[in-house]
Amino acid sequence: MCNLDTWSEILDSLRRHKLRSLLTAFGVFWGIFMLVLLLGAGRGLEKGALSNFGDMAKNTIFFWGSRTQLPYKGLNPGRFIQFDNGDIDAVRVSVPEALHISAQIDLGEKNMTYGTQKGRFSLTGLMPDASYFYPLEIQGRLMNMMDMTHKRKVAIIGLQVKQMLFRDEDPIGKYLYVEGMAFQVVGIFNIRNPEDQDALKTIYIPLSTMQQAFHFGENFYFFMALADPTVAGDVVEQKVKTVLQRRHSVHPDDRQAIGSWNMSREFGQLQALFRGINVFIWLVGAGTIVAGIVGVSNIMLILVKERTKEIGIRKALGATPFSIISLILQESVLLTAVSGYMGLVVSVGLIEGISYAMNTFHLQSDYFSNPEIDFKTAIFATMLLVVTGAIAGYIPARQAAKINPIEALRSE
């Protein structure tokens, strides 16, 4: 039964064996500390690796043209495959699993002016469906199909372009000049990812406008397809490639003519890798915790042996087996829970400190970024402490409950 006298007795027992209690507690402290720290570090590695994908939709597939390697239908190898607007129409009709498609042309930095302000910013031509690939925060509006159909000279500018060219003015409805051509600003975009701030120095215009203004005809460099999430990305990728191979007379076995990058496949492989890492971390952490539990259990066994005579007196005076078991379990749980909780607090504090330092001093990289431990894991670790404490004390407690009072009183 848990009362003030019982807790006073438990604390007195721990104080009488300070070094032993401290070393036993350190084993549990270290087990929880290492488990939580490794989980936080694993999460930091995962976030660093996933940051390379940016905020783009993870079921995106990229396609681009290259040179053929095999002859086909009387055509020599070495032809360069150039995509055109007809390819987009064909893919939309033949591959309904490609939910959204956007071709793209990047022209690099161009001279741009507004009034007396000048600068060089990136110029990119996109299609309206690009909004499904790039999660932009828009003030004003995005480009639409009317802009594409009528080849309107409209532009959506990045926040840094607005700050450098328009200062405190509202640019919506005003005209900026790109290589001497006037474009009306219809929107301003911002992005949430702090690692992609260079993208805010970009101006987006309709792809059809760029093709006409910069003499691309109906051609473009590459396009993106957003795969239906209910369909395997590899299936969509192969279907699109089949359509493109047929349109451009490419040999079905030619793997070089049409390049592709399936983000969903890469993303899935990376997630599988980190699932494996997390399993490994849990195994290592669990092993360390088990070592701590064994230490606590051994100490409790020694404690029971030392207090055999005392336990015998208790039983002779009418103490029930439950009260004996309860006493040993409470001491075991107290020792385990306090030391484990300290390990949890110190490890979480260290993880938060590292994360704060990385944000403050901009130390994020492609390999490690903002380690963290989620609330569910912390709660699970706390529950684990209580359970392991009870397990560590149960066997010694059962042994104490079975002590024969007469034999115990004879012991030295």
Write structural notes for this entry.
- With 412 residues, this protein is α+β, with helices and mostly antiparallel strands.
- The chain folds into 2 domains: 4-53 and 268-410, no CATH class; 82-247, no CATH class.
- The chain is built from 12 helices and 12 strands.
- α3 (85-94) crosses α7 (233-247) and α10 (321-360) packs antiparallel against α11.
- The two termini are 28 Å apart.
- The chain crosses the membrane at residues 21-42, 279-304, 333-358, 378-397.
- Residues 21-242 form the MacB-like periplasmic core domain.
- Keywords: ATP-binding, Cell membrane, Membrane, Nucleotide-binding, Transmembrane, Transmembrane helix.
- Belongs to the ABC-4 integral membrane protein family.
Keywords:
alpha+beta; six-stranded mixed barrel; 12 helices; elongated; nucleotide-binding; Putative ABC transporter ATP-binding protein; Macrolide_Exporter_MacB; ATP-binding; ABC3_permease_C
